Amino acid sequence: MSREAVVVGSGAAGSAAAWELARQGWDVTILERGRNLRPGLGEVPSGELDTRYGSDEIKGTRQFGFPDPLLEPYTTRTQAEAGQGIARSAQGALGQLGAAVGGTSLHYNAKTPRFWKQDFTQLSDLGPVEGAQVADWPIDYHDLAPYYDLVEYRLGVQGDRSRIPARTLEQSPRRREFVMPPNPTGHAASLVAEGASRLGYEAYPYPAAVNSRPFDGRPACNSCGLCSGFGCTINARGDALVSWLNPALRTGRVRVIDRAYAHRIETTRNGRRARAVHWTDVRGRRHRLPATTVVLAGSPINTARLLLLSASSAHPRGLGNRSDQVGRNMMFHNFTLAAALYSDDIKPLRAQSTTLQIDDLVGPFTGPEVSALGVPYVAGGIVQVGSAIPIVGAATMLSGMVGYGHRLKQLMKAGVLTARTAGSQLIHQDLPQAENRVDLDPSVRDFLGLPAARITYSPHQHEKAAAVYLGARMQAIHELAPGAVSAVTLPMPLLNEGITYTAHLAGTARMGTDPRTSVCDRSGRLHDVDNLYVADASTFPTFPGFNPTLTIMANALRIARGIAGGSRKEG
Amino acid sequence: MTDDIQITRRAAIQGACVAGVALFSGAGPGAAAVAVPVGDERARFLRPEEMRTLEAVVDRVVPGVPEDTVPGALAAGCHEAIDALLGAFTVSPPRIYAGGPFSDRGGSPTNHFEHFLELDVYETTAWRLRIEGSGGRRALERNGPVKGYQTVYREGLSALEASVPGGFSNLPGPARDVALEQSEDPRVREMLDLAVPHTLEFLYGAPEYGGNRDLVGWRTTDYEGDTQPRGFTHEEVLHPEGSGPLDLVTDLIGTEEGVAVAMGSTELLHGVLARSGGRFTASRAEVGRLSSPAPDAAEQLAQMRSLAEELVRAARDGQGESR
User: Fold this and answer.
1) Which of A58, A233, A503 is opposite residue B209, by nearest beta carbon?
2) Is B87 helix (H, G, I), strand (E, B) or coil?
3) What is the pLDDT of residues B289-314, one digit of tens each?
4) By three-state DSSP, how is residue A500 classified?
5) Distance between CA atoms of B73 and A412, rounded to whole angstroms?
6) pTM here?
7) ipTM of the complex
């Protein structure tokens, strides 16, 4: 068997997979639609890489490191709109992840909680939910645990095992202490944590791939607060590029082609084997890259789109889509946002993004209060405690509320959002639904002339019930924060029938044991194509309420190790 | 607390294109040398009369002295920054993305922001399309024609100026507010959809883009700005000394604006930007929708709040008992 692979996507999944394959002596070519923003890539150790990023909000506003919505739009609609035959109700950047060498991890928040044991057996434990396709995973926590250890070790994850609540440790047991201790807790986060403790909730340092001491030749974080949406200017964050891709490139066995738009996977006539990946460069020239193993890691929307674009006579509904499940079960993390308002300047931006986490709202919750909401259970998620947004973002949100002029200026001078707010986010579990899906837009095209991905999405009744039940707790936490003059909660599943923005995506090519109801087997291999694997969050059968990057990397390593070890037999 | 920001008195920063850069040394000891594009050589697009109208617009987006005690968008140079964006491709590299990683405001001896990044083919295509429009080129009109910023501003400013006898820019401030508010001309509305977010972006963004002159956007808001590579010490994180309490904040309670407080989330911000394409009317509609929910959602929200009240009451009672 030839030991070479083509990987589509250089983000969290693609880079981790390429690293593992290279470690096992494979040759890997990665196709990446974005540009390289880290000069020195592949030439110098990760600690010496330069960066094109800055603590510059305008770059963020201008989609730096993202796909451009004019050139590569997605289209979206709700389930109700789809039912009325509306082709799309929005077109642009909604749902887009980053597009750069290293993927969205270049500007992620670097929060790295583990999924819990119970997340892998949700259907068995809790039973079905009407209108949702809840499923068990074909793997369990212990299959991922060694990879969690490895990812945390390579990224350099900070945390404090002694402060992790007992239930969290029981649900996500860990062999090792964290690589390094936590950075100092933000003042705003401490205030909210005190409110939470009055409800009996326990806040603890958020595991994060952020240096609190020099590590891997990179310096300690200095709490500048400009994390999510910003590339770390001092290189203090562990990510797909510094922790996996750059070391992989430096083995000499891996190459990455940037601005390469993969648009079709060619198979043998009978459709059983992939034999080439077709891609287009930014000038529209077409290329054919022969392949003996193909690994898809372009994130859920793009992976589904590529499989659908690769329809052929052997795979008329899209590659690997005999089950009609490709593109379905698209899941987004909805958020419930809460904030405490202070008359004091509490400096919420002075901290390494979010420093504390609360697990008391993970659930699942049952009982009369839940039944009264019309659902069998409420599955929640973790709370990111106490943060704020920087100033251009604050001006954008406030002008959305009050318009422009004198009133806006007074609110900006008061620093309402930048100085006097402690905000938190609950990450909601999103149940998989057949009708939440990615397909090809019938008329909107990207700049290369290829059909755009179209996302049909509405939150399930479960998400709305969870928002009521858990939103109440979020509101109480913030009302009880010492010194808060008021608190507000915005439960997005109640306020929005379509997708809200989130960088947390999963589903569209779920793993499972039954080829009739899933796209991939437990090894990530397509049921219908022998040498084609999916390594990204597309494979997740459910989407528990935790920041997903750690699990994406761990699962990609597991899948890559299976490929290198000849996992066909396990399949 | 604003000592945290090293405010260097400097000649007005109008941007940092390679063409026409001259070096000035800063005014005081320790002030860094700043590259300032000279006078006529900054990137520009609008005609002088259009600039006058634009000045009169940005002055209403964030008014300055004497209506308020501190300067606003006009003094910050937001009109020139907008003009420089419209003319971004008249200089090389185009003024789209400032360089990195550091400005000279957080302890770096060199200001990397001043040297704008070279764009690749993809970025050039996207930003020329956005600024100049599709101009009938079929390859760029797969999803319909794109009207460029240049046309939007040019048509909107001229329509606005002509909408008032004697000219919009000659009106006093409050009368300009009314004229802007009442204009139903789609060209004016489309221009304002860009001018409002652009003004805010340039007032509160990095000064290298041409606005936020003398850091007025940050000084007047006590915003700490870009602090890298210095960042904050553990002590500054754990025990911050803020600028003190402000009564205005309590004015917000119970008002619809109070809801905005919970909107300080990166995810929500990106959602609003993505849905609205960053345009003012659309982002107002989006934020408005979140703050005044549909009737069935309002019922569920009320249910959520009453559950919260019970929890808060129980927690407070519980604490009373344990004392």
Assistant:
1) A58
2) coil
3) 888 888 888 999 999 999 999 999 99
4) coil
5) 13
6) 0.94
7) 0.96
